Amino acid sequence: MSAPLRRRRALARLLVLAALAMVFLAVPLPGLRFATHSVGAVTALTGVAPASPDDVSSISSVADEPVDAASLVTGGDTDTSRFTAIGLTFDEVPEGPVFLRTFDAEGRPGAWREVAVEEEGPDPGTAEARSARPGTEPVWVGSAHGYEVGLGRGDATGARVVTVHDEVQRVAVDTTPLAGALNIAPPMGINSRAAWGARAVTGITYGSTVRMGVVHHSDSSNNYSPAEVPAVLRSIQAFHIDGRGWTDIGYNFVVDKFGGVWEGRAGGINEPVVGAHAIGFNTNTVGVMVIGSYTSTNPSSASLESVSQVIGWKLARHGVNPNSSVTVTSGGGDKYPAGTQVTLPRVVGHGDTSSTSCPGQISNFLGFLRVRSQAWTDWLRAISVPVGNLDGVGAGYGVVNAVGWAQNPAVDGPALVRLEVAGRVVEGRANRARAEGNLGFDLFVDGVPPGFQSACVTVLGEGLAAADTPLGCWWVPVLDLAGTSPTATIATATPAAGVVDLSGTTADVDGPAPRQVSFEVDGVVRSSAPSGADGSFSARLHGVPGGLRQVCVLVANAGAGVTTRADCRLTRVPGGSPFGAADIRLRDGNIVNVSGWAIDPESVAPVAVYAVVDGRPVGFPADWSRPDVAVAHPGYGDRRGFVWEAALGRGGHTVCVVASNVWQGADTTLGCRSLVVK
């Protein structure tokens, strides 16, 4: 290697350490359909009064420790609308135990039971933790119409009761695909979030790998049937979101007592999704919960086998041996203060990370779970396609560098890894030393054009594993070694519902202004315009879907150099509901005429509109020319109008016009009218 090239690569390595890297996370598209939707209704605890002698006696009989009868109070609502699950949240962690009983439809009370206070939750300092409240486990009751709570007088202050109700609605349901970029096929069937009616959520975060499995139980009823499992999961999700203030259900996977495995928290079963299952240890771990209370009951063999399978598969995907140990650092919790390093087995119970008795009797089977998970990991490696992880991508002057690890169980020796950037390809073996073993790769591509470029890394299939395994793509800013290509700086990227306003400046050492500037959203050019005479630009981009979006500025080259994607910005765009107007009238005595216009701020395509006549919808596009709408709402074009007619029978009719929501937001009723045909 020549001295100039060595110096160039050394410079590139230094620049890589400081380079910006932009990661694109696949955002699942929520689906809209009629489904059973679980919602947690939150109310303050009412009717608080000193416990009666009978209640003190009954509560004492089920308490794990002696009850302070002098401070014990009860409160609640013994006649409410039907609910399927119940739990409590508090301003502060309660000092004493919490007790609960429910009432049936005839007002008959059930037995008192002690309800465990959860020791799990988001890690301190995270965005999810800022809205979180302490609380109990959600208790699955199937069907109840009232409740009564017993707790210490001081704990009653600020206590809120969360009752979970099932409703049938047209809702956004999570449709995250199970397959995705799956590298090692799971050895068991996994029921998707759609299978249990999970609510679509946002705000999911990711770690870099999965280093450990944490086993839980729900500490709730064991009395559920296979058909009730989806409702149990919906109730837990609703309690965690609406009651505890979490982003989603806290666990990555859930196992029922029959051995069924269910996808828990959103974000993709293949990804290192950060849960809320083990406070201080949520990042880079996988939380698996078994539905039921195992305080004094042993888990079923079917559930233990499924826990072994899902942990063995998940750790195999990340190059980890379940039957080994790992040193982890606490993010803060009641057992280990933030920053504490602790060496733990790779498969632990919740009580190993927090001061809790969870997962009850399952703790007696952790040794079995480690050995059995290792057996599944070994078997999966023997039959699997290549695996790995892309740790990071950086860029310098004409250079892109990618690092990570990869393994191909089908070949003896290191896996072959490929890095592709802007049509340039380099391959190398993953044989560098790192924590997972001699599995690391460190690849460079030279001669990369300047600007933001997509760098993709793939583990190539060899031997029996013929299929390639993509590890992902990162966008990185590549610097221009010659300094002759145009540059740009996005000064502001201001989002509103379906809109991003951009402003900034351009420069080109040998290309005078004005310069042609194009504006991209997620890799698609939305508009182009010349800059000002001073090189400045401003633009409003319409129809931008809500969510985290990459907005880029491309500057056309003049003179030496090349046209460059000169600057990019990740911007979180708010969602918005459609808006418009509708006119509903009766023509010729029996013809209903519907006309108007509709726009969804998150789309530049025509909106779907449906007329609902006596409860029956008929759909049609809002794609008629309306120049007046284009003038009043610039940026969306004139194809936003609609006209629809139908004959009505004799009698009274109700006609409504609804604009269908495209992305985030909700459907919008543009108008309703009662009509009478004589």
Task: Describe this entry's structure for a reader.
The chain folds into four domains: about 30-380, Lysozyme-like (3-Layer(aba) Sandwich), CATH 3.40.80; about 385-480, Sandwich (Immunoglobulin-like), CATH 2.60.40.10; about 485-575, Immunoglobulin-like, CATH 2.60.40.10; about 580-675, Immunoglobulin-like (Sandwich), CATH 2.60.40. Strand 29 (about 515-520) and strand 30 (about 525-530) form a beta hairpin. It has nine helices and 41 strands. Helix 7 packs across helix 8 (about 365-385). A six-stranded mixed sheet has the order 11-14-13-15-12-18. Strands 1-26-25-21-22 form a five-stranded antiparallel sheet, with no helix packed on it. With about 675 residues, the protein is mainly beta. It is about 15% helix and about 40% strand.
Relevant terms:
Immunoglobulin-like, disordered N terminus, globular, six-stranded mixed β-sheet, Lysozyme-like, mainly beta, five-stranded antiparallel β-sheet, 678 residues
What is this structure, in a nutshell?
With 678 residues, the protein is mostly beta strands.
The N- to C-terminal Cα distance equals 93 Å
Radius of gyration: 29 Å
The largest beta-sheet arranges its strands as 11-14-13-15-12-18
Q: State the major sheet.
A: 6 strands, mixed
Q: In terms of structural class, how would the helical and strand content be classed?
A: mainly beta
Shape: globular
CATH class of the largest domain: Alpha Beta
Number of helices: 9
Enter the CATH topology name of the largest domain. Lysozyme-like
Helical content (DSSP H or I, runs of 4+): 10-25%
Average pLDDT, rounded to a whole number, is 88
Number of strands: 41
CATH superfamily of the largest domain: Peptidoglycan recognition protein-like
CATH architecture of the largest domain: 3-Layer(aba) Sandwich
Strand content: 35-45%
Poorly predicted parts: 1-33, 175-183
User: How many structural domains can be distinguished in the coordinates?
Assistant: 4
